[in-house]
Request: fold
Amino acid sequence: MIDLELPLEKRTKQYRFFEMMPALISYGMFVTLAATAFINPFFSSICLLVVIVTVLFRSFGIALHAVAGYRSLKQAHRINWQERLGDLADPEKSYERIKHRQPENSSLAVHYENLRLVAAQPSVFPKPDEVTNVVIIAALNEPYEIIHESMQNLQACTDGMSNVVVVFAYEERGGAGIANTAKLLEAEFSSKFKQFISIKHPANLDNEIVGKGANITYAAQKLESMFRKQKVDINNVIITTMDCDNKPHKNYFWYMTYEFIVHENRKQLSFQPIALYFSNIWDAPAPMRVIAVGNSFWTIVSSMRPHTLRNFAAHSQPMEALREMNYWSKRSIVEDGHQYWRSYFFFGGNYEVVPIFLPIYQDAVVAKDLKSTFIAQFKQLRRWAYGASDIPYVATRIFTRQRNVPFWPSIARFIRLIDSHVSLATVAVITAVGGWLPLLINPNAEMNILAHNLPSTIGWVQTIAMIGLFITIWLTLRLLPPRPKHYSRKRSLSMILQWFLMPITAILFNAMASIVAQTHLLLGKYLTKFDVTEKAKKNSAKS
Reply:
């Protein structure tokens, strides 16, 4: 068993160096930009133009991937996944029935090929009724109404599936309220699934931080013990982890179970749905809507780039693999993204994430009032940005003689990891103010033609990049849930006008949250508590 765990207290000098790296690079970019603007405005302008043009090309790439991802979503919506999963019950008979038909599209052609392969090796692929779907729902002290609504959705989207086990994993530190919620849910839903189990995670266990990973790991270990007594075949169990506000698409579990069966190397895979923060999007304040839509499109774009796809939020992974790696990290506040790297190193680089082109709907950040909402949003983004803590974890497992993964592919992943965190912290700030720096801090910059024209040049580039933004707005309007009746049409207009806030949200929330998270790592002031995003439910609202 290789050591997959994060250090809890003391770090080596090498580990500390890589912990400091993202902040050193981010702050170094700001300092270098200011210094070169003062010393050599021409060179500074060239550097800024390189950054801006890079952002321009990236924005076009993102727009293209967003459109492709939207098409994949729409195609997956049209497929009858329950029927396709049913075909796998008797793949030989199903293949004989349809093999002479001309497939109408590439998706159907893939299904035909899957049936042929499964029929040829029936002992390798489990039957649908042999697969057990486990859903672990993590909870701290969320309102009963939000959890109950999600449970009703879960019941509806798994209706017809015979082997669904729901685990309500709640925290002892959540108090009497969440314990009572567990009893109410068990009383109502125990007959709706094959099993409904409530598991309380004790507070203050050794070698844990206060976080979701410790909670769901404890629940999964208890479940494993129960399954062994019940003689459940763990090789055919797939676990999906969800938050209390998650609402899977009605076909998600059918689609995911289908993919689990048809992949012979399923143990080295996890399955990643699209996270759409649209459940309460009409109720959220405008800045939170911009952030929620941005995060949603990030998951859509990532699904179209398999080499960059990572575990995020709700995802599914075989129990056999999870058991062997001792489930999730109990020392990380970003257990979802970190799970990718645990799995990658556990399987010696032979691991990948399979996109599931159906959404699991989640809530945009809405707290009890505007101030609380802003604070909750910042803390959520800071927690996600704290994924920069994976940089030393990855580096110390690559730059060592005990490396168990291929070097160059791992280096490429490592560079992309650094780039993603540094870009999030710096690009929005540099794009917004960088063009004016030479003119502001160097009195001789006016004499340099390039520096003098830099603000207008950047403005033109940003105008061209707006094409990508218009595509995002168009796709957003097509993906949004229907406007609630208690909102007037003015609310729909605000869904378009809100995008004027994007430069502000990009700097004050995304970039600042990233800088704060990286600064924590730089100073060794580690985040050791999972800040659960406050959830509030609006029953009515006014435009």
